[in-house]
Amino acid sequence: MTAIDKQVRLQAAQMLELMYAARGVGLAGNQVAWPYQLFVMNPKADPAQKEHEHVLINPVIVERRGSVEGEEGCLSFPGLYQRVRRAKWVKVQAYNTEGQLVEYLTNQLPAEVSELTTRILQHEIDHLEGILFIDKLGPVARLAARTKVKDFEREFRRAQERGEIPPDAELEKQLAGGAVEL
Description:
By secondary structure, the chain is of the alpha+beta class. It has helices at about 5-20, 110-130, 140-160, 170-175; strands at about 1-5, 25-30, 40, 55-65, 70, 80-85, 90-95, 100-105, 180.
């Protein structure tokens, strides 16, 4: 466990930079081998629109309603997009970088950002729980993505063999940190 301190804020800022560099809209701590239960997001994907940036620490979905299917991708699987069924709207509670409890009710957001924001919240919280968007694919989509996923796995193992990525045991140890202490 760690407290919300200057280091956590600095790493959240670095995560936002990484997210923008990869042209993403969300990034979870465990995607960059940081052991924090936090993620960053900006549904506008525009670093100039700081008012849309959010850092969510220890996020929890407390309510889900409805169901909608939409196309989804992931920075962990560049170029792979598939349709995924998610809740139509969610209520999420989390802490911000000041340690204040914040709540996101996506059914109360403007229509132009509510669907994407709802999807991002669920996608990133899934990451923190060890669930990938490919785990949510139906049988046909899973079959369609299988070759690309196997290619990602092969390249990952090759990078480990070259020493560019730590072995699995070391990655698991790095990610064992868990929740952020308030």
